Amino acid sequence: MSDAKPLPVVDYLKLPDDGDPYLEGQKCSNCDAIYLGERTVCSKCGARDTIEAVKLSNQGKLYVYSIVYRSFPGIEVPYISAIVDLDGGGTVKGNLINVDPAPENIEFDMPVEVVYRDALGRKDKDGNSYLSYFFQPISSKLGTS
Amino acid sequence: MSDVYVVGVDMIKFGRFPERTVPDLGAEAALMALDDCGLTIQDMEALYCGNLGQASGMVGQRLLQQIGQTGMPVVNCANACATGATAFREAWTSIKAGLYDLTLAVGVEQMGKGLLGGGGGGSGIPKEGLLGSGTMPAVFAEAGQEHARQYGTTFEQFAKVSVKNHHHSTMNPKAMYQIETPLDTVMNSEMISYPNTKLMCSVNVDGSAAAVLASEKKVKELGLMSRAVKVRASVLTSDPWQERDLVMPDVNSCTRNAAAAAYEMAGIGPEDIDLVELHDCFATAEILHYENLGLCGDGEAGRMIDDGEVALGGRIPVNVSGGLLSKGHPLGATGIANIYEVSTHLRGEAGGRQVEGARFGMTHVIGLGSACGIHILEKVA
Asked: Is A26 domain-assigned?
């Protein structure tokens, strides 16, 4: 590993110098809507300058998923595309890992945690590594990082 | 405001025509629609042209350069999979506004094969397969899974949609495919994004469709009322804010809002509708829209498909054309092809797939992002 710090895969994944990575939401103080990514206007209520950064939970529940068998060239399949409602608010999409990708192994509302790993070895054109986030079942004995 | 009628409408047989051009395909449908009502391009006062793939390419004007440069105003429009319906609605709106008496709406698309959606976007590294999937089969699988988590809808029930629509298309010579696909064939075809198998994904095809719209005064003046179809409602909505918007496109709310507005505009209810062409871009999606369009109560869509209520001969036949699943889905043409299908039934000219005694029909499209277009048409003569 090089000493270079990886870059965040999306701008709402925060990598503080002095702490663990986390997902950041942008919350409207007027109507409590939560967004991913910085913005100045709330598209739910239309309020301006009411958006504040909040730290999102690393735990949540699986809302829905699809098991993807056909993707674009070079993308390893199968994988589970998952939409997770985080405890305390915020909905995030990502890969559900450490589960055998078959419907009988996946339950709606199963508790999951957000884990932070290298972005499957993907690098940008300048050779930079990236840190991504994934979901895994909380009960899983696998995939300890 | 004048009532507005469809007096001429047609579509080409959907297929793959890589040797042709987009304006060429659009021009063919335009001439077919004009021939359908015995009018000429010189009679048209404005053209509304829907196309997605060449949205900046002045397709409408290039089309007229093939069939008649009259100098009429041309509006090119793009609205994802609601593009054709949007073009049709603009043609309707301009007559409603009293600007014109005769307008032409064309929808056209040249597609090629392959997966849609999931395009990289943004900086850094590709996110597909890293942060879930943005491919259309996965996005609509997840939308269907929302119904499954609420009501226990099964893979088999989703698959039955595809069996039905492929069966319907065997009676539609203009559909891309005329092939029966039994349930085990659908369920055992290649899994693309669970629970959507390959046969539960719409077919990417090239296609075009066109409609000639007229004010009531002009329909009477031209003596075209006998085959005219009345536009009883035209509605376009966008997606209202939803909690999961940013990661999960909501195809339900915009459809529900559009359906409510369309029924109100037409002064009828879902119980009056005799057939529906709705946006079955994936088999999972069709199930959602039975409820979104009020064809049944919430949670009853699975039963609807199990009981055959939405098949030809059932209580409310859905996608008797074969739908996007088998007729094919040339994005910008789909909305007007739906108008063609419903109009053909209201005219009693649908041959083997005719919905007997049809008086009211509904068309519905969803453009992800999102736009929903709904039209309600009524038999006149």
From this structure: yes
Query: Is B18 among the domain residues?
Result: yes
Contact criterion met (CB < 8 Å) for B125 and A119: yes
Q: Can you tell me the distance from the alpha carbon of A116 to that of B179, in angstroms, rounded to the nearest whole number?
A: 47
Query: For chain B, what percentages of helix, strand and coil (3-state, to nearest 5) are there?
Result: 40, 20, 40
CATH code at position B283: 3.40.47.10
Q: How many angstroms separate the CA of residue A22 from the nearest CA in chain B?
A: 15
Contacts of A65 in chain B (CB under 8 A): 142, 145
Nearest-5° Cα angle at B81, B78 to B82: 70
Give how far B321 is from chain A: nearest CA, Å: 28
Can you tell me the distance from the alpha carbon of B217 to that of B239, in angstroms, rounded to the nearest whole number?
A: 36
Q: Give, in order, the Cα–Cα distances in Å from A62 to each of A70, A92, A113, B265.
A: 22, 10, 10, 40
- Judge whether B81 counts as a catalytic residue: yes
More confident residue, A6 or B1: A6
Please give the ipTM for the structure prediction.
Answer: 0.93
Are B205 and B323 a contacting pair, CB within 8 Å? Answer: no
Q: Which domain holds residue B86?
A: 4-113+203-376
Counting residues of chain B whose pLDDT is more than 90, the rounded percentage is 96
| pLDDT over threshold 70, residue B146 | yes
Predicted pLDDT of residue B124? 87
Of B248, B243, B253, the closest CA to residue A28 belongs to: B243
Q: Is the pLDDT of residue A2 over 60?
A: no
Domain extent, residue A26, equals: 7-137
- B117-121, B141-145, B326-330: which range is least confident on average? B117-121
- Chain B closest-CA separation from residue A132 CA (Å): 8
Whether the predicted model's global pTM rises above the 0.90 cut: yes
**Which one of A9, A93, A117 would you mutate to disrupt binding with B, by most B Cβ within 10 Å of its Cβ?**
A93
Mutation choice for A interface testing from B247, B251, B282, B288 by most A CBs within 10 A: B247
By DSSP bridging, strand B275-277 and strand B4-11 are unpaired
- The single-letter DSSP state of residue A56 is P
pLDDT band at B245 (very low <50, low <70, confident <90, very high): confident
pLDDT value at A143 more than 60: no
Q: Do A72 and B128 touch (CB under 8 A)?
A: yes
Amino acid identity for residue B4 in this structure? V
Over residues B185-242, the pLDDT tens digits come to 999 999 999 999 999 999 999 999 999 999 999 999 999 999 999 999 999 999 999 9
Q: Specify whether B372 is catalytic.
A: no
